Amino acid sequence: MTNPGFEEHDHDACVSGALSVAEAHCAERGLKLTPTRRRVLEILLSQHRAMGAYDLLPILANEGLGSQPPVAYRALEFLVTNGFAHKVEKLSAYVACSYSGQNHSPAFMICRQCAAVVETTTARDAGALGRAAKSAGFTIETAVVEAEGLCPACQTEGANA
Fold first, then answer.
1. Candidates 3.60.15.10, 1.10.10.10, 3.90.1300.10, 3.40.630.30; correct CATH number of 11-160?
2. Burial class of residue 137 in the structure, from the number of CB atoms within 10 Å of its CB (0-12 exposed, 13-18 middle, 19+ buried)
3. Rounded to two decimals, what is the model's pTM?
4. Domains of the chain: which residue ranges?
5. Complete edge-to-edge strand list for the sheet that includes strand 117-122
6. Cα 98 to Cα 66: distance, rounded to the nearest angstrom
7. pLDDT along the chain (161 residues), means of 10
């Protein structure tokens, strides 16, 4: 799946492609992508923004998939553990992974105005952090970058205000 960024894209293909990757990954590894787990992933994919468990619960409850917080948290834990979603610490919420099935270090661009979140990748051992780690004799195993700012739409909106 390619990263849709902040621009318009074929949203249906985006969602179906990511679901196909998740289904194949689970089948290959003998993991159960239960209806609730699948639906939570589908919701995250359809939103392209970070969502918390309590954002998911009304949708799940309305569809008969559970109304208690542990239902959402267990599904999210499964998705994160298996690389289908990430927790965005800044927002204490979750986003679907834009690079499912790929070993990567995520970097998130978070719009402080509309709350859109876009994932891209970074190299763990590159840039200033990589150089600092190398000079300290440290090996970076995982790194997550979260940057907050304004997406193109909100920048344009602000310029027109």
1. 1.10.10.10
2. exposed
3. 0.82
4. 11-160
5. 117-122, 105-111, 145-149
6. 26
7. 54 80 93 96 88 96 94 96 93 90 83 88 78 91 88 84 61
